[in-house]
Amino acid sequence: MQLELELTCIFLGLNSQTHFSLKPLLKNQLFYLLLILTCFGLGCTPSDPTDPTIIDNTKETNFVSDWMEKLGSTSSRAGLNSPKASRVFAYCGIACYEGIHFSNTQLHSLENKINGLTNLPKPSDSKSYHWGLVSSFAQKQVSFYLFNTASIELRQELVDLAQNHRSQLMNQGVSAEIIGNSIYFGEELGNAIIQWIMNDNFKTADTSSYTIPTGLGLWEPTASGNPVLPHWDKFRYLVSDPEMVCSPGIPNYFSTETNSIYYQDAYEVYELSSAITDDQKQIADYWADGKNGVSAAHHALELLRNIIRQKNLNQETSALAFVKLSIGLSDVYQNCWKTKYQHNSMRPETYIKQQLNNNWQPYLSSPATPEFSSAMAVQSGMIYQVFQDLFGDLNVVDSSLVSKGISPRSYSSVNQLVDEAAYSSLYGGTQFRHSIEQGMYQGRCIGQKINELDL
Predict the structure, then answer these.
(1) Which of 145, 374, 381, 394 lies at a C-alpha separation of 20 to 30 Å from 248?
(2) What is the pTM (predicted TM-score) of this model?
(3) In this predicted model, what pLDDT tens digit does every residue of 183-233 receive, in sequence order?
(4) Of 26 and 113, which is predicted with more confidence?
(5) Which residues 6+ apart lie within 8 Å of 82 measured at CB?
(6) Phi then psi for 358, rounded to 5 degrees?
């Protein structure tokens, strides 16, 4: 009877010495009361399993996918463009993977494989951890640091997500000791990654002044505003090196001769725009960087989340895919931006207005960067290479923009998807074909470097 009393007090949140009387209760009534309270405390299956407020103890939420969604939405709401968003995704992807890889001996740390990433803390052999929670709190630390200029509300959401994961595990019966160990180690790991981030020269790359070169065939901004991140290659690369092993080559030689390759490339853009179809407009709009309130890098992250859901991937595989994609995105934008400002190539809009039709306008607005190489093509090439390595050539339903009121698009293969994404800028009138083709090569080279990491 004393044991029953103590158990009842625990479930009611009372001290065992609390003065109240159980004498009126019959023994069988006490038994049923304990049974009900036990179910309440341990989370027995409710009568309505479809109730979204009920935590299903048999299937843990994918913490990795949760963080991908939160990072993507936060980057968009904070107004980050693709290069900046990709860097945030990469740093958080590394924190995610480093926290979760301990759960599987077949997964290997990125330490000493990513430029400058050394001396990461190690878990204690004498303690138990929940690696998903370690990963979540590591990302909380890193993302809170990276979004240091975002609103208090946005930063608080990052903290809330990690705390929500902690609460889920508490409700599922994970011990307070394991939760405490996991939070402590996750934050320690996140702080170590922040120390590494602080030495990457990021601030120099973001704030240095820039003078636009002038000359025949060189880029001329087509709208007001400063060039976008002209020094984006000045900080630390993650995998691919600054010597441009993954160089896309050089742009076509500038010429106004009608039989030149340059002129013919420009005329193709001009002709396409004159007879652009509704389907081509839809493709151009769907993949336009930032047009739908979603950066191209965020779109790529959501695309991976679609695959995680479609294939019902576990947290380990999700973390592996997240870190490979996010590292690839970061190096894609550094390599591409280095190429752009190295060559300073003219946009089709400028050339066509000068040589073909002064009143011509592209379907999409020309970005405030030089033309060669195509950022969407480089990103697409990398995605193809990484996704092929991870998943093979699977069918893909991309519902990334459903929240923006845009219907999903279905693809029979990854190859079909990335081709459509890459050539969307040709339909939009912002890129030459040569820039797209060479950009795809550049992206696939970067993707292959990611695949060669010993993970």
Answers:
(1) 394
(2) 0.85
(3) 999 999 999 999 999 998 876 777 678 899 999 999 999 988 889 999 998
(4) 113
(5) 289, 290, 295, 296, 297, 298, 329, 333, 375, 379
(6) -65, -20
Amino acid at position 442, single letter:
Q
| Residues counted in the chain | 455
pLDDT in tens, 330-352: 999 999 999 999 999 999 999 99
Start-to-end CA distance of the chain, whole Å, equals: 56
Q: What number is the average pLDDT over the span 311-321?
A: 95
Instruction: Tell me: pLDDT of 22 over 50.
Output: no
Please state, as a whole number, how many other Cβ atoms lie within 10 Å of the Cβ of residue 363. 16
Q: How far apart are CA 30 and CA 7, in angstroms?
A: 11
Average pLDDT, stretch 400-405? 90
Tell me if 208 sits within 8 A of 231, measured CB to CB.
yes
